[in-house]
């Protein structure tokens, strides 16, 4: 059962779309982890478990990971603690990237950058072929 306060908070953050996604996540950035973790969100943990199965422990340190739609950095936070030290994250929201950049005392991500993923024709050429693994959790929106 969720609290009435959390329920009301959730209701204020429904109905966003591709045109307002940046503003939505800028607004919710500081509350994101509390909202999702209170609801039992665990995709970041499952994502890391899969990555651990795919990459031997002794290879994780230099394995280049691209966390697409990294949001507040939940994936990077867990993966960095488990030995992945070369994680780059992108998100459409500069506000939420600020939260991600602080995870694990600033060590979860080696770089973060603002990038809207809904426009594949604008995907930066310099990122193509740069990474060994791509992660993407909770990034689907209408």
TrEMBL record:
Matching Gene3D superfamilies: Vaccinia Virus protein VP39 (3.40.50.150)
Classification via CDD domains: AdoMet_MTases
Matches recorded under Pfam families: Methyltransf_25 (PF13649)
Taxonomy, superkingdom: Eukaryota
Annotated ranges, domain Methyltransferase: 65-137
Coiled coil start-end: none
Name of the protein: Methyltransferase domain-containing protein
Classification of source organism: Eukaryota, Sar, Alveolata, Ciliophora, Intramacronucleata
